[in-house]
Amino acid sequence: MMATGAAQKQTCTLSEHDSKVLLARYGLPIAPERVVVTAEDASSAAEELGFPVVAKLCGDSIAHKTERGLVRLGLTNGSDVREAASELLGTATSDDGDVSILVAPMLRGSRELIAGLSRDAQFEMTIMLGVGGVLAEALADVTIRLAPITTIDAEDMLDDLATRAMFGPFRGEPPIDRSAVCDLLVGMSNAAEAEPRIVSVDLNPLIVVDGRPVAVDALIELEEPRT
Amino acid sequence: MKPTQDHFVALFEPRGIVVAGASTHPGKFGFVALHNILASGFAGSIFPTNRDGGEILGVPALASIEEVPAGEADLVFVCTPASTNAELLRAAAHKGIRAAFIASAGYAEAGAEGRRAQQELVDLADELDILVVGPNGQGVVSTPVSLCAQIVAPYPPAGRISVVSQSGNFVSSFENYAKWSGAGIARAVSCGNAAQVGVVDFLEFFADDEATDVALAYVEGIEDGRQFYERLRAVCERMPVVLVKGGATAGGARAAASHTGSLATDDRVFEGMCRQAGAVRAATIESAFEVAATFATQPLPRGPNVIVVSTAGGWGVVTADAIAGTDLELLPMPDDLRAELDTKLPPRWSRNNPIDLAGGETKDTVPDVLATAAHHPEVDAVVFLGMGIQGNVAMMERAGGFYPDHGLERIVGFHERQEHRYAVTASDLASELGKPILTATELAVTSPSNAAVRGVVESGRYCYPSANRAVAALDKLWWYRRWRERREP
Questions:
Q1: B438 in contact with A, Cβ within 8 Å
Q2: Cα–Cα distance between A173 and A186 in angstroms, integer?
Q3: CA distance A37 to chain B (A)
Q4: Distance between CA atoms of B104 and B137, rounded to whole angstroms?
Q5: How far apart are CA A148 and CA A152, in angstroms?
Q6: Which of A82, B73, B212, B247 is the 20 to 30 A CA-CA neighbour of A218?
Q7: Would you give the DSSP letter of residue B70?
Q8: Count of CB contacts below 8 A, A vs B?
Q9: How far is Cα B480 from Cα B462, in angstroms, rounded to an integer?
Q10: For A50-66, how does the pLDDT look when each residue is reduced to its tens digit (9 = 90+)?
Q11: What is the C-alpha separation between A36 and A43, in angstroms, rounded?
Q12: pLDDT of residue B255
């Protein structure tokens, strides 16, 4: 899963929050969120953001939150948030380094996309767009281009997807805003150009809310600076 | 060394050619190469060399390249052992030769020693300013000068497709398809080990080449992916490139470095690269040739709207299904066209697209309906399925034992002339209107001598073995048209 060039450079990951902060600088749509270090602050953050919320354990060394059970979904009141946050903090191990709690609104949408950057051994930086959600792996509906891309390339990527019919009006939700998806892809391309240390970016999932994709998780892998 | 136009002209349009290592033994490359050059009627000078001198295939052999008159040859076709080639290359340069096709094996494909020999060969060629193609390649073909310098067959008919391949045997496959279909070849070259020049160098030459309308490339491994992409894209901005990729030789290495998600395989990177570069990727050798033949023999569609003209209901139905699976559109029958066709056809015709004549045709109906449909301003392309029935009947009646009596001679001749005429009409309309008009009948495969198929081939078009294949090829032309259009400044 880790993409490395022929030189096998050392890489490190950014925390989910730092990944999102970096990508937001390039205009990528990120759900609002708060980072706190205590269960009490998590509860206050949730009150500010509005229920329901999700709480996740966050840290530079934490890459596979779902597999480790470090994500709590659909928390509907302050005491549930407090309880979830203390539990999450309790599961952190010394290997996880400094950890915090990330609180974000629980977004809902029937459609999910995935997007990312990855360095290919032959073609260097590539950009990916795919259909996300529970069937993503089975559908394997993914398209790739070489970075940098233009808006025309981004539009072509949308048209490549076999299940692009889901871009129309769907279960009472408006059609997916094509230009919002194109902007996201071009934004990722810009990030890749401006940040040469990026080895990979994983946006999984992008939940489509009111027709627009919003990243609710992000993971950036960087080349370690030479020491 | 970056080869120049002059180098490629020396390769593809030499005034004279030296066959180094020509042999009297009919099983050797040095014999076959000379044989094929002579047999295909190359008009320039031909200088076989052989240590023992003598005569090969009626041509006197020179004892060495030293005896070639200076300035009379531009190309040397090399069949001599690898160990002697450095000396040969120096002597060739001395005679003013600018290009060498190296068929000799024993280079990089043969291990470490061979890799070293290959590097030395390239360094020497760079120093001598000679284009070296190969080594370990199967040859070069250039129909504008009737040159067939290859150790494989066949010599293809002349045409507008130019082929470059990392596999010499696929050059031969494409030439076979050219011979079978009549969609001819301009240049064809097997890169062999691609020591000095590779696929993309030839693509760049083809884009400049007035004899070439479309490039057809077989690719296995790519050394510098990024550079390949950028150069390929620059070629596609000027000329269509049909590309087929074989082998997963780099697959293992790429797979390890593939995508963030487990979903993306390395081939998807290659696929995306092709789409971004504007290259038309084909899944098979057969479809690659067919798509290239379509680019070479039809204008690009100006839009997606296809009309189907058929003399049999089922043919039209299947074609409509095929169109539904593409980016093409089955044009809803325009009212004015329907009204016009009503005046030409009995009431039982389909009155819709596909146009099914439903057996209502008289002598001039098929060409008349085809022309009317093709002329309609909303029609961007036509798939014509009007051939085959009459040709088939004629074929059976000709062979049935009653011919030419019982009036058969007259009716068979009529059917054959009609079929031929339909094909020519389709071709003439494509030229007149600048719209693709594709004709399909399985007779292209089952009975290539049939009058319908001959009509298509003789009018310089490609006869598709099925409507599905015609639709698939047309879809690629439409994709390329849009790629170009959306990126034009």
A1: no
A2: 25
A3: 30
A4: 8
A5: 12
A6: A82
A7: T
A8: 95
A9: 19
A10: 999 999 999 887 777 77
A11: 10
A12: 38
pLDDT tens for chain A, residues 1 to 227: 344 444 557 899 999 999 999 999 999 999 999 999 999 999 999 999 999 999 999 988 777 777 788 999 999 999 999 999 999 999 888 888 889 999 999 999 989 999 999 999 889 999 999 998 878 888 889 999 999 999 999 999 999 999 888 888 888 889 999 999 999 999 999 999 999 999 999 999 999 999 999 999 999 999 987 65
C-alpha B35/C-alpha B48 separation (Å) is: 11
B-facing residues of A in 31-90 (CB < 8 A) are none
Mutation target among B233, B259, B486 for the A interface, most CBs of A within 10 A: B259
Mutate to test the interface with B, among A118, A144, A222 (most CBs of B within 10 A): A144
Name residue B47's beta-bridge partners.
B18
The helix (run of H) or strand (run of E) holding residue B285 is: helix B285-297
Nearest-angstrom CA–CA distance, B213 and B203: 11
The structure tokens 């069949």 sit at B79
| B residues 123..182 contacting A (CB < 8 A) | none
Q: At A112, is the secondary structure helix, strand, or coil?
A: strand
* Residue A25 DSSP label: T
Contact between B260 and A200 using a beta-carbon 8 Å cutoff: yes
Kindly determine whether residue B275 and residue A130, on different chains, have CB atoms separated by under 8 Å: no
Q: Which of A120, A137, A142 sits opposite B254 (nearest CB)?
A: A120
Question: How far is A221 from A198, CA to CA, in rounded Å?
Answer: 6
Interface contact A227, partner B, CB < 8 A: no
Structure tokens at B480: 């390329």
Q: Which chain B residues contact residue A156 at CB under 8 A?
A: 275-276
Q: Could you identify the residue written with the tokens 């959600």? A: A133
Amino acid at the residue B143: T
CB-count burial class (<10 Å; 0-12, 13-18, 19+) for B413: middle
Nearest CA distance, B404 vs chain A (angstrom): 57
Q: Is B154 helix (H, G, I), strand (E, B) or coil?
A: coil
On whether any CB of chain A is under 8 Å from the CB of B272, the answer is yes
* Of A159, A119, A155, the residue nearest A141 (C-alpha): A159
pTM of the model: 0.93
B223 pLDDT above the threshold of 90: no
Instruction: Report B:45-74 residues touching A (Cβ under 8 A).
Output: none
Q: Indicate yes or no: CB of A123 within 8 angstroms of CB of B271.
A: no
Give the amino acid at B72: E
Q: Please answer whether residues A200 and B257 qualify as being in contact, where contact means their C-beta atoms are separated by less than 8 angstroms.
A: no
Backbone angles phi and psi of B110, in degrees to 5 = -110, 20
Q: Is A143 on the interface with B (CB under 8 A)?
A: yes
Tokens 């023992």 correspond to what residue? B52
Residues in B closer than 8 angstroms to A202, CB to CB, are 260-261
